[in-house]
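agent> fetching stored inputs for the arginine docking request
agent> found them:
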Amino acid sequence: MLLEWAADYLAPYVPLSRGEILPAMERPPKPELGDAAFPCFALAKRLRRPPGEVAQEVAEKMRHLGSEVRAEAAGPYVNLHFSPNVWAVRLLNKVLEPGFGTSGAGQGKRVVIDMSSPNIAKPFGVGHLRSTMIGNALANLYRASGYEAVTVNHLGDWGTQFGKLIAAFTRWGDRKTLERDPMRESLRLYMKFHEEAEEEPELEDEAREWFRKLEQGDEHAVSLRGFFVDASLKEFNCVYSRLGVSFDYVLGESFYNDKMSPVVELLAQRGLLEDSDGAKVVRLDHLELPPCIIMKSDGTTIYATRDLATAFYRTREMGADRLLYVVGAEQSLHFKQVFAVLDMVEEGWSARCEHVAFGLMKFDGKKMSTRRGKVVFLDDVLNEAVRQAEAVIEAKNPTLLNRRETAEAVGVGAIVFGDLRNSRMLEIDFSLEETLRFEGDTGPYVQYAYARAVTLLEKGMAGAEEFDEPAPEALSGRLAWECLKQLAGYPEAIRLAAEQNEPSVLARYLLDTARQFNRFYRHERILSTDREETHARLMLTAAVAGVLKNGLELLGVKAPRHI
Ligand code: ARG
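agent> prediction call returned; pasting tokens
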């Protein structure tokens, strides 16, 4: 916001349009250097003069602006200093406006977000947490940017793993045990299948045969699969409600069963399908990618075929302008292939698609792998986080009401924030202890800053009538000004986070905001005997609280009022 105002000020004094000035504006590296900086390199090049000289001249021309904005040349830069006496209250009023932070950038555009998408009969692992929470945050960020975001859970409810499960169940399973503890029992069967298949490779044939039967509607296969799906969904829904995440659509891979043959036919019509050892493939040699298998030699379809049908459906039936896939980086080859095939069907198709990849997440050094059974169950992780959060809260604030509920919000929030604060491509080794610290780059740190602001407001507002417009000088102190400037950066944080599909941009912004507020709180007494000053500082506190709460909610983290 400040940069925009700075561009407005500069525009009459440089031979450039505001549209050219704004993208060049920078935030100076140190607050002493001012509030906005305009580098003169490009302008100097155009004028064929040294940048330092141009900067001097612009600053000179702006001298008469006097008290509102002071311009100063520093080498090739024109630094602008906004006078807090004039601007603090203007900024504050802006931040307190309803809907502050949102924009209409995506008006009229629909983005379909593929997220979470766990696999039936396998546990909901920490890996799926990342897709769920990054996807959820992106949906919120896109909505705040004016888009219509449609979220879809692309459940893994079809595919060869059902062949394996049915084969394993038929050999070693029984209905009673399965009904008693469906998730653990199906995981056991799945693991046993892989163990035994190493010794007895024919098992793989058996599984393929079961999957083929399933695709042809065999009764035993269909009913067992139905059982697995229902049991898993029950469990997934518990996780989603704990995370506070819901979907506009839950359309698993099986939804596309009757939508694949038109895709296969279309590819055939276009002459894109080739035989390869009995399988049908689309060659992608021109992109130096391995061929995309569309149909296996036994006539069954695969993951990629379903994703092609899915992309058609989302574009044609759901009216998507953009397609996002929030899926681990290990699937990047798959998406390259799928997007390449789409481009061969219709030029430029893939420009609408993006694989929003993310790195592997380890948990206290442990990796996820369903096959070998070294799985980390998300529920266990959340329970442990909540238990530890409760212990901290008990020590910090023994009289707190709703302790359990607050611990749930802090424990779960810590995990979600801990996931989102890292650039998504980074591999994370998650440490519960660090994630839960109230001091540090953590969710609880931000939540605690919010709760502190709320407490101050409750204390300060007790018995106070409505706030008047604060006196301009009341907020002109350096720390209040820094805090306000930080708040003014909220719309930009949302914009960048959405543009880059990086919720971490917002998470880091919130950490900075909480830190800035804590500095202000520590060094300047918010509740003093000076009524006007107290009011002004409380209004700033209210503005901080509003941004922190709104930002946490965009990330999918709850903001309890008291901790
Ligand atoms: N179920 C898959 C997995 O867990 C993820 C699906 C992602 N979405 C998609 N359209 N392929 O690996």
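agent> quick read of the result: The domain at 2-82 is CATH 3.30.1360.70 (Gyrase A; domain 2).
agent> awaiting further instructions
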